[in-house]
Every structure is written in structure tokens, then in C-alpha cells.
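Entry 14. Structure prediction run on the chain below.
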Amino acid sequence: MDFKIFIEPVNKSLLKVKEWPGHKALGQTMLLHEDEFPPLDQVKVAIIGVKEERGAENNEGCSHAPDAIRASLYGLFGHWNGLGIADLGNIRAGFSVEDTYFALSQVVAELLGQNIIPVVIGGSHDLTWAIYQAFQQRSKLVNIASIDPIFDLGTENSGLGSRSWLSHIIMSQPNFLFNYTNIGYQTYLVDQQSLDLMANLLFDTYRLGNIRAAIEEAEPVLRNADLLSFDMTAVRASDAPGNGNAIPNGFAGEEACRIARYAGMSDKLSAAGFFELNPTFDRQGVSADLAAQMIWYFLDGVAHRFNELPGQNTEGFTRYLVRIEGQPDELVFLRSKKSGRWWIDLSMGRAPGSKYERHHYVPCSEADYQQAMQDELPDRWWQFYQKLM
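Output returned:
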């Protein structure tokens, strides 16, 4: 099936960006699907809008977000040589929301197959389900990192929607979800049963306050993700008012941009989505401007990837062995000679070529190594060790 049939061209009225002497904005330098579909052989990142909002809860109007974001994004300046970027246009809303899910999953699966990073913009958070299905089509285990003030588990009888998509992924069979990480949940918005479920499933959850106090700790978390799913509700209303569910607390705009850049820098991450922006509630386009800048920072992260994955280039890493009392084996830490980033090596004694091989190296921080040096097991080690048992 030709995935191009699901996509309509970019609205040409959006191309009226300001021209600055000696410079060109992204709307003038990226490949655009206008009259003809652009060639993808040199493309690294492809932007896809989705005009779908039937799964939204209290946020009708978010289907108009793709072009609102583009109107700002096209006027920003890229500073990256050799980073091929294309805007493929918008996926039309299908006759049913399931038709839209199918179209999006087909498009994302095709781009993943061509080693192109899809960046999905607009629509409601349940579109994460369709992106997950693209990974499922390729029989690939996936780590999802969701920036969200809640867990989107819904209730027992919830249909698939923006606040229940995660439970549908958890219950889907065959299941290819290896790990789910929530960054920025707000405790007063989450019931204890949901917190217990996250713990029982060995999922990672990080409170908003903890991440804001040490936002650099989000980097190793995002370095382990295959898919970034960013709900704009996670950004406080003063910085992103364009959302029917906007709340007073959340990440600041600059923190959201930093998180997006961390995600882009991850050599492992292969898809991203930015959801729940609603131009109906926006104020002077502030939210659309922020979303565009977040995407800019994501692109900047991709442009500055280190192209280093443990297991592929052992000479590029320094090994540190730590003996912890009561543990039969030493903990193995790896530190990149190029970037200075850290990993925990869980590959010892495990057969190569297994479906878990990509998950044998767990991104961590130097703080985890220092914790081990104090004769304490890092939480990251224990969390993933249990998953691999």
C-alpha cells in the first residue's frame, strides 16, 4: 500500500515567511509536500500533521494544531548542516477515528522502515496508540516516554481516547511494550491505584517536582526511549494556554524545550509526537510558538547526536566494575569517551541476538555510579534487572 495516499499537501498560505538578508528560515530550506511528494532518500526527520480530535477529552479544536504550529515553525532558523528535514503534510481525518489510526500507523511504519524519524504534530494524545501500532507492525519492542501530568489509564470501561490510550497499549496482544516512562506526573492528579499499577508493572514514573529540581536527570530517561509522546498539558497554563485542559502547574516553556532536545539527542529514539495543542484556546499564538520551538530543539538534538550505542563500539567506552555487598556479580558501568554519558551494562551472561538485546544497556547518570560506589543498588539497575529476569 502506498502510504502517500493518506497525506494531503502543505497549505501553501503557510509558506509566506519573512525573508531575512543572508538567511533562510525552515519554511524555505526543508523539503515540503506541495504539488508533488518530496524525495525521501536524504531525509532524516519527517514532520506529519494529523487532523484528528475525536479521541480528545474536553479539547475539541486540537485537530487545527498542525498548521498553527507550522505557521511558527516555518519562520524559525535552522543551523544544521546535513540534517535532511521534510514536511510531508497532514493526514486527513478518516471516516472513523480507527481509519485515522490506521493511516497514521501505516505512514509511521513506512518512515521507520526507511530510518526516518517521524515527528507527529497536532491532534489528541490517543494518537500515541497509532504510533505504537507502527512499532508493533515491525515486531519491535518499544520503550515509550510520555511527558504528561497523568498516566492516561482511563477507567475499566474506557474506550480508546486521549486519557485511556496507555491501558489499551498495556492490554494489547501481542504486546511489544517493553517499558513505559512517565515524566512530570502531578501526584494530586493521580490516584494511588494507578501509582501501584505503575510500580507493579515495573514502569518508571517521575514526579514533576523531582524532575524540575534536577532536570538533567531526564536525559538518561529519554536516552532509553524509542518513542517520545509529549502532551502539551504537561506545560503550565501560563506558558501554554492553548489547551482545553490547561492547568496551573507544569513544566516551564524552557524546560519543555530542554526535554525535547534531550529526546532528539537520543541515538535510540526513532519517533516523536507533540499533542493536545488547541489553537481555539491559545493566546496570541503563544502555545503554537512554544510547540514550534520545542520541535526546533528536538531537531537540534537530532543534529547533535553522538551516534554511540554500547555494544556496537566497545572501544569507545571505559568500563567501571563495582562490587556491592550481597550481590553475587559486580555491577558494570560504561562511560562514553566521546560524550561522557553513562550506561549500566546488563548484557553479562545473556545470549546475544535475543529480543531483549537492545535493552541490555541501560542509560544512567554519574549519580547512579556514585550511588553504587556507596554500596547501594541504583534504582535503574534493579528496575531493568527485574524486567530481564
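Residues 3-303 form a domain with the Arginase; Chain A fold (CATH 3.40.800.10).
Filed with the rest of this week's runs.
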